[in-house]
Write a structure and sequence with these properties.
3 helices, two-stranded antiparallel ribbon, single chain, disordered N terminus, six-stranded antiparallel sheet, 8 strands, Chitinase A, domain 3, about 200 residues, mainly beta
């Protein structure tokens, strides 16, 4: 389900990361709430009162269990399985190999992305939307975004498409980030549009 009125919810909440305490993110250089750059307070409010994400029982899913359709450069479709549990570790798998420069720590990467939440299979945010432009992630590895992005983008080549499955502890943690539930597993498909090496 698309949430039409919440364009840039996830990107802007990544930029603020109020859901992450200083002790949780000290090693990644993430900013505290005092550096919140989101223009919409609702986009940066913890999902207090929300029930934690619940998931299916069974074996742990692998990247191969998650179905992604659509060509690189176009908006994909993500189908999350209901017969296995979300991965407990970060998964980063290239779906389409890129031919350009690979993202390295410190680089700037312009990326299109789609985010679906695992527990309810809802589309939460996408840059493949009228009026949107690729998200520019500066200083990859130490960028003020969720930990799963800083770790998971390394090595993706310009022109490539990657599936990124982010467990709750590398996403928004036990506080969540409205409309994302506490401890939610996040499923991204990311296209690397442009990679600019660090100066």
């Amino acid at each position: 389900m698309r949430i039409a009125g919440r364009a840039a919810v996830v990107v802007m909440s990544m930029l603020s990361l109020a859901a992450c305490s200083a002790s949780d993110r000290a090693s990644t250089g993430d900013p505290s709430t005092s550096t919140n750059s989101s223009p919409t307070s609702a986009a940066t409010s913890p999902s207090s009162g929300s029930s934690p994400a619940t998931n299916a029982s069974g074996p742990v899913c692998t990247a191969a269990d998650i179905k992604v359709t659509g060509a690189a450069g176009q908006k994909p479709t993500i189908t999350i399985p209901t017969t296995c549990q979300p991965p407990k570790d970060l998964l980063s798998v290239d779906l389409t190999p890129g031919t350009g420069a690979a993202i390295k720590a410190g680089d700037t990467a312009d990326m299109n992305y789609l985010l679906v939440t695992w527990s309810d299979q809802k589309e939460v945010d996408t840059s493949w939307q009228a009026g949107r432009t690729p998200y520019q992630m500066k200083n990859v590895g130490q960028s003020p975004v969720i930990q799963g992005w800083n770790e998971g983008m390394i090595g993706l080549k310009e022109g490539g498409r990657r599936l990124l499955v982010v467990p709750g502890d590398k996403g928004y943690g036990p506080q969540g980030r409205a409309p994302i539930k506490p401890n939610e597993t996040l499923v991204f498909v990311v296209d690397a549009v442009k990679v600019t090496p660090a100066q």
